[in-house]
Each structure stands twice: as structure tokens, then as C-alpha cells.
Amino acid sequence: MNTQTITIGFLLFAIIMFAWEKIPLWVTAMIVAVGLVLTKILEPKEAFSGFTDPNVLLFMAMFIIGAAFFETGMAQQVGSLVTKFAKTERQLIAAVMTITGLMSGILSNTGTAAVLIPVLIGISQSTKFPKSKILLPLVFAAAMGGNLSLIGAPGNMIAQSGLETIGLEFGFFEYAKIGLPVLIIGIIFFITIGYKLLPDNAENEDNDSIYSQEKSYEDIPKWKQWTSLIIL
User: Fold this and answer.
1) Cα atoms found within 13 Å of the Cα of residue 92, Cβ hemisphere only
2) Going by C-beta distance under 8 Å and a sequence separation of 6 or more, which residues neighbour residue 217?
3) Residues 104 and 151 sit within 8 Å (Cβ to Cβ)
4) Closest CA to 34 of 48, 15, 18
5) Rg of the chain in Å (alpha carbons)
6) Average pLDDT over residues 185-193
7) How far apart are CA 170 and CA 151, in angstroms?
8) 206 φ, ψ (degrees, to nearest 5)
9) I want to staple 112 with a disulfide (CB 3.0 to 4.6 A). Which of 16, 60, 104, 211 is the partner?
10) d(C-alpha 141, C-alpha 145), whole Å
11) Mean pLDDT (the chain, rounded)
12) What is the pTM of this model?
């Protein structure tokens, strides 16, 4: 069996198992990685290079910071503040997508999503809105907002590097000519038609997670709360 057939086989296996979810997703990913090494398609260094990928490490770090954000009670305070302006789920989705989209355009879509995930989970706890209904719009807004500028998404810079080899280049906000209308249409979609399609998985949420625990934070010193916010 040639290498192309083996690789396609592992790819199909991964697609099916990711969609089926009969075994944990991380197990599927590790089976593919180990399988590609055992069949000598990839060297171990290549197969497991993702463990040192900057985006993976970014999310790991943000989950740690996010945990501190919750343990100090700061997430709940921020959530309470936001809900004073967004009274309904639709208003909250519109606000979240607007902020996320604009931040993704001038920062990084991956980094923006990582920073805002713990904040939104805190908002979810304060409002009792299902996390599944506000996190999905967050991800879509980050993806669409990444196309507002040259630095919003890694693919934009890759395209720029390719163009430079033939003497061409994009302007910094040239992507926004298409990206901004797409972001606006996306926000309108999610607060109208898309809102009805968002999953409501409140009953299936992990109650053992620190993000699902409800407790009093009166004994937490204020300096710890503000420190977690500043670090975030």
C-alpha cells in the first residue's frame, strides 16, 4: 500500500470519527498521529510538532488565566457589568460579535478568541444564557473579523508573502473591502435566522468544570481579582 493511500485512509478515519464522536476527539487525533509515525509516513518530530505550536500553547495559557479569572470571581463581575447593557440573548450576541470582530481585525483572530472565551463563560454564568449560544457566534466573529486587516489571520500574511515574491502586495486594510461586509452580514444573520439554529446545550454542560461552579467570592481579596483582570 503506497503512502498516498495510507494518508487518505487516516484522513477519512479522522473525519468520520470527529463527526461521529464515539470516542474522545483527542484519542482520535492521537491515533492518527501515532499511526502516521508507525507507518513511517511522518517522523515523530513532524507528527507531534503541534504540541509546540504557538496557537496550542496560547490556548493552554489562556485556559490557565481563564481559570484564575473565575476562581477570583472577576469573570462574574465583568459578566454582570455587560448584562446591564445587553438585556437579551440577541443583544448579547450582537455585542459579542461586534467586539470580537473588530478586535480580531487589529489583533489576531486566534488570540482574540482565546482572550474572550473565559469572559463569555463568565457572562453566561451571570445571565444564565447557555454557553453554546454565545461561544459559537464568538468563533464565527473571530474568523470573519480576521479578514479586516493584513494581520488579522495567519493566512493573510501567508498570501502577502507569496505576492511579495512577484512584486505585489495587499494594503493593510485591503481585506476589509470584503471582510467588513461579511462581518456585518454575519452579525445580522446570527441575531435573526442563525439565532434559531444555535444549539441549546445547557442540560449537557459539564457541571464538574470550574466554569460551571457557583460559589461566593466575598472572601477573595480585591487585589487578586484585579490582578487576574490585568493579566488577562
Assistant:
1) 26
2) 72, 73, 76, 225
3) no
4) 48
5) 21
6) 94
7) 11
8) -75, 105
9) 104
10) 6
11) 84
12) 0.66
Q: What are the grid coordinates assigned to 114, written together?
A: 482565546
Check the CA dihedral 143-56-103-202 and report its sign. positive
Distance between CA 18 and CA 7 in Å, rounded? 16
Q: 134: which 3 cell numbers? A: 454565545
If we measure between CA atoms, which residue out of 175, 165, 146 comes closest to residue 55? Answer: 146
Nearest residue to 134 via CA among 65, 86, 71, 174 = 86
Using DSSP's 3-state secondary structure scheme, residue 208 falls into: coil
Answer whether residue 207 shows pLDDT above 80.
Answer: no
pLDDT tens readout for residues 46-86 = 999 888 877 678 777 877 887 787 788 887 777 677 767 77
Tally the residues of the chain: 232
- Of the candidates 163, 160, 161, 144, the one whose C-alpha atom is nearest the C-alpha of residue 152 is 144
Closest to 89 measured CA to CA, from 134, 56, 145, 59: 134
